[in-house]
Ig-like domain-containing protein
Amino acid sequence: MMSLECFIFILMTFLVTGVQCDMTEVFAEVGSLAVLPCQYSPASNVSPRIIWSKAGKGTVWRMEKSGLQMWGSSWSPNGNQRVRCPHTQFERGHYSLQILGVTEEDGGVYSCRLEQGGLSVETVVMLRIITVSISPSAPMSGKDVSFTCQVTPGFDGSAAAVQWMLNDSRFSRQTRVTSPGDKFKSIVKEKASPRLSGNWTCVVGYGGKEGRASAPLTVTGIIQPPFDDTKVYAAVGSAVTLPCVFSSGLIPSSPIWEKLQPGSLNKRAPSRVAPSFSPSSPSSQLPWDQSASLKEVDLKDEGKYRCSGIIQGERLARNIQLVIAKIDSSVPSKKKGSVTLTCQVSDTSEVTQHEWVRVTYDLNGTEAFGSIHKGKTLSISPLSEESWGTWACRFSGRDGTLGNITYHVPMMSGLSGPKSSGYSQNTTAVVGLSVFLLALLLILAQLYKNHRRKQGIFQYPAMETIIHTVSNEREEREKYRVKVLP
């Protein structure tokens, strides 16, 4: 409600003879620059006398026709002027007053009076200061938190409209409005949670004008993951990290990781966690980072996990769901020479799309991606060169890619299953037959070579006679040697 002092100040401007009066609303956030408008089209080139004053405070700033400037004592502490009226705007008839770093006490009624050639023109400006405060400024998750939007001075009646915004989105929870004294307040009370973290803005509308002020909120506790039941996707055989990060500087006591029973948020699973589950933080991690890891994901690791720790005597907890992805291969009975790959995700509640893409690598190890095939299943021919390499199945949700899993088709591979086994047996038989034929060919070649050698000898009878003569003489000498020996 407008104070009596302000009302008398405005009334006096109407009673002054020859004065024209107009009223303007201006909003400014505490600590910002406030600009109070004052515009007049001069009737001559003679500089006017300008006087800015505030109701109940006297002169704020004034300039005589000679150009001499003077400041009110409260507006120039220690010689530092908080107000100014830029001369560069005078030629265009703008005599707006600028107030640097406005405070709550700066709110109120201001008057701009221009005197020129016996004519006096006065503009009245209502400056309202908006302040947003949050208490406590950094609440712990689960604790009460209060948001207050205060406007000084307040409004007449309930004509003001207030809207709260959280991160530029409308916050539609119920608010409480009070008008104690000459102040206006809009109050929101909530339980602190990560969903409330961010920038809070109060938008106030009154008299056709709008003003706003903001303040940030940081909720302490478990900041990663920010929400309960956050899903983490991992492929079978891969490593995965389950995040559990507390606010910087908050070191939890008695941290615990546990696996919950299916369908329960409170009971522990009998098997607790997998052998590869590592609940202890590596030495390289900060003490408020209690994230855990699985070195090699298995199908049985799928499910919900809970990370918790005690902060300020209260146990804070966050539930995380581990979703497992795998690729199944099958040989359709009606399609010989082909394999069907199926992308399986243990929880598809967030999955909206599946995509298959072939990934190949050149000699330098550079990746190359083929065309994209949409759908949960993909039919390929392992005997076809176009199917060799790595196939990746990417599954996505509304906010983008959730995860992926790969399947490798080796070069010259056969079909999987019984048909693949038959193909391997045929290969062995072909190799064995080839070796047998090669050995038989070598034997035949040797026989032919011996046969040709014999034919070559019988073609020269004289040589044959010499060979027999030499042989007979050798036998005679052997007989004679035997007889001579005693």
